[in-house]
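Protocol step 4 of 6.
Sequence for Pyridoxal phosphate homeostasis protein (Propionibacterium australiense) entered exactly as in the expression construct, tag removed. Do not edit the line below.
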Amino acid sequence: MTEVEGAVRERVRRVWDRLGAACDAAGRDRDEVRLMPVSKLHTVEQIRAVHAALAEVSGDTGRRAYGENHVQEIVAKTGQLEPEEGIDFALIGHLQTNKVNAVVPHISEFQALDSLRLAARLDRRLTELGRTLDVLVEVNTSGEPAKHGVGLDEAFGFCEALADYETLDVKGLMTVAVNSSDEQRVAACFDALVELRDRLRGQAVLGSTWCELSMGMSGDFPLAIAHGATTVRIGTALFGPRPER
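Step 5 output, structure tokens:
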């Protein structure tokens, strides 16, 4: 084992142990929380190393989705991987409508749906391809104007409107909490997403499968798990510092 491989395995083990401890502290089963590695700006070789280490520590040798923010990266990395490697990509960043055609064939999931115009464009492309796509609605729970996402006051109606798009398999909600050392402010973002999910469930919006809550990153994922996250998106804690673009 090389020094680099050893460092990857140590980071992965540390994250896996922290995830387990957070689930235990919250009284939750580890299987309730999906770990999505965020591989943006990291190489395919690094992704393979993390993938192997996660398979070793978890005992799960099946397919795993890696979060990416940029269409060009997803297309390039997909071309360097073989399907049997078990590595899929989820787009977790903002998507412009003019890039829908390029990215849709290369992703298994989209976690940043935030406009009906984008929903319509995705639906057209997916219809052309004869397939569906798992999507999450991105909600701006912090109210920060610089962030993407549907506002909390608009989110319920937005989710109702998605029923018109048969190719979009809406699985739940995603948010990026406020970047703050104040845990109460961060937790308030997570709680707002949970409350929205519960309202949608209560009104039977989009059926009974509406359950996914993608929230929490390297700096706050234990808190997100305590507040109900079902997916945590972890980059730096698994891959190490992200290189400059």
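Step 6, annotate. The chain has one domain: 3-239.
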